[in-house]
Amino acid sequence: MALATRGEPVYGEPTADGWRRWDPHRSKLGAMLELGLDTGFEAGDGVLYLGAASGTTVSHVADVAGPTYAVEFAPRPVRDLLTVCESRPNLFPLLADARQPASYGHVVEANLDVIVQDVATTGQATVALENARFLAPDGRLLLSIKARSEDVTREPSAVFEEALETLESSYEVLGTRKLDPFHEDHLAVVATPRAPPAE
Amino acid sequence: MALATRGEPVYGEPTADGWRRWDPHRSKLGAMLELGLDTGFEAGDGVLYLGAASGTTVSHVADVAGPTYAVEFAPRPVRDLLTVCESRPNLFPLLADARQPASYGHVVEANLDVIVQDVATTGQATVALENARFLAPDGRLLLSIKARSEDVTREPSAVFEEALETLESSYEVLGTRKLDPFHEDHLAVVATPRAPPAE
Amino acid sequence: MEEAWFAELDEDPASATRAIRSGRAQKPRDWPALAVESGFAPDKSGYYESLHEATVAAAREAVSEREQADDQQLVHAVRAMDDLTEVKNELAERAAEWAGSQFSESREGLDYVLEVAAREPDGPVEAEVVAFAESVRDLEQRRQALRSFVETLAPAVAPNLSNLAEPFLAARLIALAGGLETLAKKPSGTVQVLGAEDALFAHLEGHAPSPKHGIIFTHEYVRGTRPEKRGSAARALAGKLSIAARIDHYRGELHPELKADLEERIATIRAGGAEQ
Amino acid sequence: MEEAWFAELDEDPASATRAIRSGRAQKPRDWPALAVESGFAPDKSGYYESLHEATVAAAREAVSEREQADDQQLVHAVRAMDDLTEVKNELAERAAEWAGSQFSESREGLDYVLEVAAREPDGPVEAEVVAFAESVRDLEQRRQALRSFVETLAPAVAPNLSNLAEPFLAARLIALAGGLETLAKKPSGTVQVLGAEDALFAHLEGHAPSPKHGIIFTHEYVRGTRPEKRGSAARALAGKLSIAARIDHYRGELHPELKADLEERIATIRAGGAEQ
């Protein structure tokens, strides 16, 4: 059995009968699903994707989900993302900084079911706190933390611990899982808003 | 009555019958004598003059004294000093740093009667301590301290007090006198070595 | 409601792009429902259609502006770095001469100046000499920092060019052309001799042979090819660099196969089987 | 005894000079008595005679060496300062251009660059622009410090020249000549056109009038004199500067009357009564 979605191919992935293979080596969310984490992600969900890059993963998400908002700050990958959007009317690209949610708060709707977050920057937990405003009370945060983006000089375990602690102020952590062998020194976190979502 | 010495004129001073007027406005030692300080300076004394500059004062000293050693660090005024030396066989010029007495200890004799010190540098009291080695046990230090050379931001009185305190470690201070109206913010000090001269 | 991106649009489609790009709201709301309620869209699906169109247009415009700006920043950075290199060399020569006279040493070059900059000066003249050497050291450090910056920025501005030619050479080509768009529009023969303008003018005035390569001579594929084949190697490299510049400018995605093609072509030329 | 300056002299009078200049003793002794005792001198008065001769010779030599060195340091400092001026202007132009493109401003000049250097950068490109502007600011500060140093050193090296011409112009004349001695040996007509070498060569090749003044044009006595009298003023000034340079080199003491003479001469020229 292998993970796949229906849609236009994007990154040279194998396809068969309109199905596209979702490569867990190229996608942190793909790895989470492949490893059997209980993400709560369901067809038709409203999704905010932070760190969409050139659209590899978000293309699969949009194949399955309902309205999908894709935030990416670097202009170069957004060019590729625009191609991914062409065949996906439910995918909305936003060239914006995930650390500045007010700059897309007038576009991204409230009460979404899922936030997928995969930003390679320091303060990854803080980005999750800032964006909690978009989640429904029973929504899910699917976060992947890259240890080296926080601090290359520290032990990944120490980095993860600190990130989880920060997260706990607004989220209840439902599960965590290292992403090897697909991605080294990455921790996947599934969480849900603790109180009414931060505003 | 006016201070004068016999010798070749040096700095355009008024002369009469082979006597040269010693201008207290142009010479700190001249001012000390004019103001009647008990300097103990006598004809024929052996003298070490620190800060001889172009020789204005040391020319008068050499007219009166015995062997006179003139230390000056800046090359330019030593040129003028060399002219002053031409007609004064008892005047010995030394291009040297008064803070480094070992650099002229092989030339300047021990047990001198007088040190005249007029150096415009910080640490004027320390220079006096360093050069005490050249003084006879009953010799005299005739020191003029320029407040602004020590610290332009402090009150002259505070500067003088600190210098005197430093001096007391090796010298007994016999008398002090401000040099106005001839020189502003200058203190004249007459002192004698406290113990056997420092070595 | 006033904060919704669709709240104050007029007939002009550009007003939607503008609203997406410059609007703000601290607190998200149920925009699809509000859009229907306010009459902006007939239903949710109609709303999402408008949203898709507006976000794609806004992202395209923003990307293009940001990249335009970035390639110009790259040009400025390369020129600033060249200035620093020149100025640093000039001052280093003066500093070595001065320090040599002050310290009675006869040494030359940047290494000597850096050593002087680290000395504890004794006296006011030495203080000036050492401070002057420190100025040279600071300029050298700035130059190196700027070079790293150029090497970071170039792959973002021109991924294919940077893949074929190393980020620094890619940046230099863009700077010589004055921008990525200008580079993309130049024929490959011009790219081949970029940086050899002096030799080219001499040729055009009739008193020199046509130059075989400009700055691309620094590429291993040219420099590392034996002299009689260098012209062919330079032509092949310039051809692929032109293609890379066009993809970088007009589309922007990375095409790794460009590099594989070029490698193969150079291997053929070096093997001696190249056409003249 | 071994520490006495006269302890190990040979026949050569230079050995006494050397001993005075480079000897050392922590603890002074009764050198006159020891000199007589050791047979170096017949009596104390003979000792003081030798001491006078040796100290005067040693001081003369030391002064001359120190001043030689100082005038060369002045030449280096002026040239380093000129380099900094040129380099600072060049980088300031680039920095203003870059900053203008990054901040969408169209301003120019050092003031703009200094203002940019003080900004808090936002993002990596701005950080590079601001750091580049800071480099320009640092060079400008170094240049100003070096100028102060030159203005302090010049009166020590050349008191009369600095009295007639302001320390900075004095330093520049010494630097243009390559040293105080070279300047002192130049005829006053050459001093008059120092710094106008280009114009002078053009004149010698027959296609330009003879220059009336070089760098001394910056002196108030030339610049402040009306054009038709400037040649005379420049000639008078150059004449006195030549004399000043010679006194500075060969003797060194300050002659305030030089300035008074010059003032009178310039007043006469300006009053219109000057010879041609």
UniProtKB/TrEMBL annotation, chains A, B:
<feature type="binding site">
    <location>
        <begin position="56"/>
        <end position="57"/>
    </location>
    <ligand>
        <name>S-adenosyl-L-methionine</name>
    </ligand>
</feature>
<keyword id="KW-0819">tRNA processing</keyword>
<dbReference type="GO" id="GO:0003723">
    <property type="term" value="F:RNA binding"/>
</dbReference>
<dbReference type="GO" id="GO:0008033">
    <property type="term" value="P:tRNA processing"/>
</dbReference>
<keyword id="KW-0489">Methyltransferase</keyword>
<keyword id="KW-0698">rRNA processing</keyword>
<dbReference type="InterPro" id="IPR000692">
    <property type="entry name" value="Fibrillarin"/>
</dbReference>
<dbReference type="GO" id="GO:0008649">
    <property type="term" value="F:rRNA methyltransferase activity"/>
</dbReference>
<feature type="binding site">
    <location>
        <begin position="97"/>
        <end position="98"/>
    </location>
    <ligand>
        <name>S-adenosyl-L-methionine</name>
    </ligand>
</feature>
<feature type="binding site">
    <location>
        <begin position="118"/>
        <end position="121"/>
    </location>
    <ligand>
        <name>S-adenosyl-L-methionine</name>
    </ligand>
</feature>
<dbReference type="GO" id="GO:0000494">
    <property type="term" value="P:box C/D sno(s)RNA 3'-end processing"/>
</dbReference>
<comment type="subunit">
    <text>Interacts with nop5. Component of box C/D small ribonucleoprotein (sRNP) particles that contain rpl7ae, FlpA and nop5, plus a guide RNA.</text>
</comment>
<dbReference type="InterPro" id="IPR029063">
    <property type="entry name" value="SAM-dependent_MTases_sf"/>
</dbReference>
<feature type="binding site">
    <location>
        <begin position="72"/>
        <end position="73"/>
    </location>
    <ligand>
        <name>S-adenosyl-L-methionine</name>
    </ligand>
</feature>
<protein>
    <recommendedName>
        <fullName>Fibrillarin-like rRNA/tRNA 2'-O-methyltransferase</fullName>
        <ecNumber>2.1.1.-</ecNumber>
    </recommendedName>
</protein>
<comment type="similarity">
    <text>Belongs to the methyltransferase superfamily. Fibrillarin family.</text>
</comment>
<dbReference type="InterPro" id="IPR020813">
    <property type="entry name" value="Fibrillarin_CS"/>
</dbReference>
<dbReference type="GO" id="GO:1990259">
    <property type="term" value="F:histone H2AQ104 methyltransferase activity"/>
</dbReference>
<keyword id="KW-0694">RNA-binding</keyword>
<keyword id="KW-0808">Transferase</keyword>
<comment type="function">
    <text>Involved in pre-rRNA and tRNA processing. Utilizes the methyl donor S-adenosyl-L-methionine to catalyze the site-specific 2'-hydroxyl methylation of ribose moieties in rRNA and tRNA. Site specificity is provided by a guide RNA that base pairs with the substrate. Methylation occurs at a characteristic distance from the sequence involved in base pairing with the guide RNA.</text>
</comment>
<dbReference type="Pfam" id="PF01269">
    <property type="entry name" value="Fibrillarin"/>
</dbReference>
UniProtKB/TrEMBL annotation, chains C, D:
<dbReference type="InterPro" id="IPR036070">
    <property type="entry name" value="Nop_dom_sf"/>
</dbReference>
<dbReference type="Pfam" id="PF01798">
    <property type="entry name" value="Nop"/>
</dbReference>
<dbReference type="InterPro" id="IPR002687">
    <property type="entry name" value="Nop_dom"/>
</dbReference>
<dbReference type="InterPro" id="IPR045056">
    <property type="entry name" value="Nop56/Nop58"/>
</dbReference>
<feature type="domain" description="Nop">
    <location>
        <begin position="157"/>
        <end position="271"/>
    </location>
</feature>
<dbReference type="GO" id="GO:0031428">
    <property type="term" value="C:box C/D methylation guide snoRNP complex"/>
</dbReference>
<dbReference type="InterPro" id="IPR042239">
    <property type="entry name" value="Nop_C"/>
</dbReference>
<dbReference type="InterPro" id="IPR029012">
    <property type="entry name" value="Helix_hairpin_bin_sf"/>
</dbReference>
<dbReference type="GO" id="GO:0030515">
    <property type="term" value="F:snoRNA binding"/>
</dbReference>
<protein>
    <submittedName>
        <fullName>Nucleolar protein-like protein</fullName>
    </submittedName>
</protein>
